[in-house]
Amino acid sequence: MLDVFVAGAGMTRIGRRPEPLPVLMAEAAHAALRAAGRELPDAIVVATMNPEEFLGDGNFASHVASHMGFADIPALRIETATSSGAAAFYTGFAQVAAGLHSTVLVVGGEKMTHLATPRVSELIGRSLDPYERAYGATMPALAGLVTRALIAHHGTTLREIAQVAVKNHANAVANPYAHFRTPVTLEQVLESRMVADPLRLLHCCPISDGAAAIVLSSARTPVRVAGVGQGTDTLAVRHRRDITSFTATQTAARAAFAMAGFGPERVEVAELHDAFAPFELVALEDIGLVPAGKAGRATLDGETARDGRLPVNPSGGLKARGHPLAATGIAQIVECTWQLMGCAEASQVPARVALTHSIGGLATNNWVTILTAV
Amino acid sequence: MLDVFVAGAGMTRIGRRPEPLPVLMAEAAHAALRAAGRELPDAIVVATMNPEEFLGDGNFASHVASHMGFADIPALRIETATSSGAAAFYTGFAQVAAGLHSTVLVVGGEKMTHLATPRVSELIGRSLDPYERAYGATMPALAGLVTRALIAHHGTTLREIAQVAVKNHANAVANPYAHFRTPVTLEQVLESRMVADPLRLLHCCPISDGAAAIVLSSARTPVRVAGVGQGTDTLAVRHRRDITSFTATQTAARAAFAMAGFGPERVEVAELHDAFAPFELVALEDIGLVPAGKAGRATLDGETARDGRLPVNPSGGLKARGHPLAATGIAQIVECTWQLMGCAEASQVPARVALTHSIGGLATNNWVTILTAV
Fold it and tell me: Cα separation of A371 and A136, whole Å?
């Protein structure tokens, strides 16, 4: 297997964007190519979760490649629900690692803010088990269930959960790409409108538009892809033994660390999937970044703050940078690339090993990716 | 790059199937695993074109893996419109070639017959350029345009085009997996109902349900994947210089032959994308299996019949075996695997080198795959 490096990274500002999705994806892709010093990639891997229903357009790999002026460059599309970006990164990694292509552009994006929120919720809900959906399950409803279980079985407190949102909003203030650049207080989080008891509005990521891109290369650069791991679980949440941890994250982390040849103790910065604030706490423990049962306390104590022992979501995370679905897994890797290259500007933290974590569906298809400064 | 072999192949009967798609995909997958002598793959690559709109379900890789009892096996989904199956095969190939997994299950399927034909046509039309769609373009309409150009610029005759359908229907009579096992005459084709002038009903593939699966392995088997090539083109048909040949097929064939280390003269059996009968003639020349301008004559002369010099679509092709979209690219490889292993039963032809060709959209994302008997 050939070594694989990140040659360039780029993304759009995340938020309500009036531009069509192919325009956003082209903006991110050309930024990543410019950063890589390349005019053309050898191949393109495209991530979008559901352009057919969000936009009414299919064949999206060809659609985007054509729009970017790359109609003659091989392109294909990857989808694993909300982790599609991370899955596309893995697929590009495999193409370079196999020697099939030496420079692969991975670009992901989503556009949803033109739709009414209930429609977006319905479409995202397609990633859940059909029988559970038939009983009214939505993504926030199931996340609320997970949160109730965390509180009941592990003593996680509402303050600990709210602090994740406070920290990530605070981080996003410095990030020019973030959807929300406004700080929030613990009180504001705890008093915001109820969404799915006990989850409130400020525990939940926004509906965002945006795109992100990475150029992967077999030629040595300052950032190496040290490990990529995937983990999966039953589509049906009721078929799981436990909902206070995610098997798919644990499996993905084990696989990624096995490929990297080291463990979580070496990770110095992480971008974790905090679509709902309590998920950051679950991920911290599932990946082994914090001992079991300690994630809430560590968060309240500032260990995961930007100036803490292990900065988590210095970008603001899904919560405040925003969550344009298939862009997210790639945006996390863009952020970590910038961190390792020392060009994260006001978000910069000192780090030579970075980890990203992306959740597909209700933790049915998760990914952990590890980057190291060469 | 590691060598990659086909360890097992399986498919469902194609046609109107009452079963849910995950059931069809499990049937094909378990048949392929049984043929490979494996209980479990290391990873799964899933192909479906648009399960969100055909079925109302998303996150389909996790959905299918869970249904098959493989919830803990890494799965992801690939989509390149109507060539999604071939793209998934390539993605599985890359995973094995890179050494990321040693046994990968590639499974593709589609279910559409429960929807009204105009709705299916609308959903398949999502793969076309939005501006051309806005002027009323549908897939059959553009195929009709291509056919008119073939007749006008290359002197292709209606009899030559109709003979493709006659041959493929004749082949499907022997295929227990085929959607249509009834022969048709030249007269029947030429007098069938007009669909998109000059294309008539019997020039067009049916709307089919079905699934197909391949197990890829790094361990040596009797069938080696000798070459895989992708070719792409502009989404908009109006942006192309010529519509009587498909650049995407030419590029894919060049790439596949380059990987294989030999040319089209060694191919002894082929499964080509004849969603519309004239497309088989275009593919024969684009791939170099027949000299330019000779495909129609060769077909009328029986060169591509099952007992001819180069049997083409011995399965019956998309025209008569059927075209369950994302299953098709894999079903073609299943057929060729069976041919090379000598277990194609009544469809058997003598061959040690086989080629498959799949078209995505209106030839925006095409694939050529070459298999050899070891």
Answer: 39
Q: Do B59 and A91 touch (CB under 8 A)?
A: no
Closest-approach residue (CA) in chain A for B246 = A72
Pairing relation of β-strands A223-232 and B103-110?
unpaired
**Closest CA of chain B from A278, distance in Å:** 22
Q: Compare CB distances from A100 to B49, B71, B94 and report the shortest one's residue.
A: B94
User: If we measure between CA atoms, which residue out of A86, A3, A266 comes closest to residue B61?
Assistant: A86
Shortest distance, CA A18 to any CA of chain B (angstroms) = 18
**Is B94 within 8 Å of A99 when comparing Cβ atoms?**
no
> What backbone phi and psi angles, to 5 degrees, belong to B229?
-135, 145
List chain A residues with CB under 8 Å of B4.
none
**Beta-carbon separation of A58 and B78 below 8 A:** no
**A59–B95: do the CB atoms touch at under 8 Å?**
no
Note the pLDDT of residue A349: 97
| Confidence (pTM) | 0.98
Cα(A229)–Cα(B174) distance, rounded to whole angstroms? 45
Which ipTM score applies to this complex? 0.97
Closest partner CB to B126 (pick from A52, A97, A100):
A52
Q: Tell me which residue in A66, A87, A232 faces B235 most closely, judged by beta carbons.
A: A66
Size of interface A-B (CB pairs under 8 A): 188
The average confidence (pLDDT) of chain B is 97
Asked if A230 lies within 8 A of B57 by C-beta distance, the reply is no
Hunting for tokens 């067009």 — which residue is that? B204
pLDDT tens column, A60-72: 999 999 999 999 9
How sure is the predictor about A197, in pLDDT bands with cuts at 50, 70 and 90? very high
- Say if residues A321 and A177 touch (Cβ distance below 8 Å): yes
At B105, is the secondary structure helix, strand, or coil? Answer: strand
Using the CB atoms, write b or e for A238-275: b if 16+ within 10 Å. Answer: eebeebbbbbbbbbbbbbbbebbeeebeebbbbbbbbb
Q: What is d(CA B272, CA A349) in angstroms, rounded to the nearest whole number?
A: 55
Euclidean distance between CA atoms A188 and B197, whole angstroms = 65
Distance between CA atoms of residues B283 and B267, nearest Å: 14
| Mean pLDDT of chain A, nearest integer | 97
Buried b (16+ CB within 10 A) or exposed e, A311-337: bbbbbbbbbbbbbbbbbbbbbbbbbbb
For residues A331 and A210, is the Cβ–Cβ distance under 8 A? yes
* Alpha carbon distance A144, B136 (integer Å): 46
| B343, B223 Cβ separation under 8 angstroms | no
Residue A72 has its nearest CB partner, among B74, B81, B232, at: B232
Instruction: Find, among B327, B118, B145, B117, the residue nearest to B236 by Cα.
Output: B145
CA distance A170 to A237: 32
From B57, which residue of chain A is nearest by alpha-carbon distance?
A126
**pLDDT for position A195:** 97
